[in-house]
Amino acid sequence: MQRFGTLSFGHYGHLGGGRELSAGDSMLQAIDLAQGMDDLGVNGAYFRVHHFARQQASPMPVLAAIAARTRGIEVGTGVIDMRYENPLHLAEEAAAVDLISGGRLALGVSRGSPESVVRGYEAFGYTGSTDPRGADIAREHFARFLEAVEGAGLAERDASSPFGGGQGMQRIEPYSPGLRSRIWWGAGNRDSAEWAGRTGVNLMSSTLLTEDRGIPFDELQAQQIRAFREAWREAGHPGDPRTSVSRSIFPITTAEDELYFGGRADSSGVGMIDGMRSTFGKTYADTPDRLVDQLLKDAAIREADTLMLTIPSQLGVQFNLRLIAAFAEHVAPSLGWEPTTGGR
Predict the structure, then answer these.
(1) What digits encode the pLDDT tens for the residues 140-155?
(2) Do 77 and 46 meet the contact criterion of CB atoms below 8 Å apart?
(3) Which contiguous run of DSSP H or E holds residue 91?
């Protein structure tokens, strides 16, 4: 592990005890938290995207705001559901955020996770899927999105247009050189990880793997990462791809931490999710010294270059910033952490 950041689900709504967190407050707090993390040298602020839910659904405005108010932190998603996306519009927005950030976008996309509605992407106008989960739509949209990000001509110029015209095919604008190398695919199993490697995009390995090989979650995830890298090399892609894993990790350093997270540590498990037998990761909650010992034994954290910490964003900026600072000071250096220094 060389880098770490946070993965926020962006929950809002009723918090209990008569408290309410609005959608606007949730987004504004995300921006403030990212600024504090940037000051600490944390490497990334990433956002989970869910539609038809009180969570982050349209991340680009938030990413652009964070990019404009920070210096070194990577901004990204983990992940955008491609079933819901117009691929060319997404490519335009991604290029804009990448340019605003100076090349700090880490755009994670995939087929998406289980939904709270039935085939919600059809309400967005994307119909005709022959797959019960819409994976065919996601892959088609992703292929078109990559074409656009790569600068391919996608529409014929109009020679008679009073606005430039010309001949040949026109790419979308804006175009951000290098953005293609900052695209990630969220893989839930070994097959999709190998596909990502062959395609030549970075890998975000999920906290939920839609397979069960009878081994602990971290070892299964480490195998997935190694298979991805092997597929990358066999496809002849240059350089070294990036890989990330996400974990729920809570350093307990105060009585308040103990109140919230004491006894929360658990082991990985297996269950049926979205109709598939799946393996899911464990939660780590302990004192910093014990966390170091536990995390050094996590095979996938050792294998990946980036660790994303899922954070309880509903608890506010100051609480989360204190948790993140405790991880940065007492845990991350022992795992190989390299903070940002105002630029990538």
Answers:
(1) 999 999 999 999 999 9
(2) yes
(3) helix 87-101
Cβ contact 12:55 at 8 Å: yes
Task: Please state the pTM of the whole predicted model.
Answer: 0.92
Is the pLDDT reported for residue 138 higher than 90?
yes
As a whole number of angstroms, the distance between CA 103 and CA 92 comes to 14
pLDDT tens for 268-286 read 554 444 554 445 568 899 9
Report helix, strand or coil for 198. helix
C-alpha span between 96 and 252 (Å, rounded): 39
- Whether the pLDDT of residue 342 is over 60: the answer is no
Question: Per the structure block, which two tokens stand in for 79?
Answer: 């992940």
**Residue 204: is it exposed, middle or buried by C-beta count within 10 angstroms (0-12/13-18/19+)?**
buried
Helix (H, G, I), strand (E, B) or coil at 132: coil
Give the amino acid at 202. Answer: N
Tokens of 98: 């990448």
Res. 14 pLDDT band, cuts 50 70 90: confident
What gap in Å lies between CA 319 and CA 279, rounded to an integer? 30
- Measured in degrees and rounded to the nearest 5, phi and psi for residue 144 equal -70, -40
Report the alpha-carbon distance of residue 124 to residue 98 in Å, rounded.
25
pLDDT tens, residue by residue, 160-209: 988 877 889 999 999 999 999 999 999 988 999 999 999 999 999 977 67
Q: What span, in angstroms and rounded, lies between the C-alpha atoms of 42 and 40?
A: 6
Per the CB < 8 A criterion, the answer to whether 288 and 324 are in contact is no
> What tokens does 219 get?
């070892």
Smallest CA-to-CA distance from 134 within 194, 81, 86 is with 81
Q: What is the pLDDT of residue 343?
A: 46
Residue pair 59/8 in contact (Cβ under 8 Å)? The answer is no
Q: Is the dihedral of CA 201, 113, 175, 73 positive or negative?
A: negative
Task: Name the residue type at position 238.
Answer: P
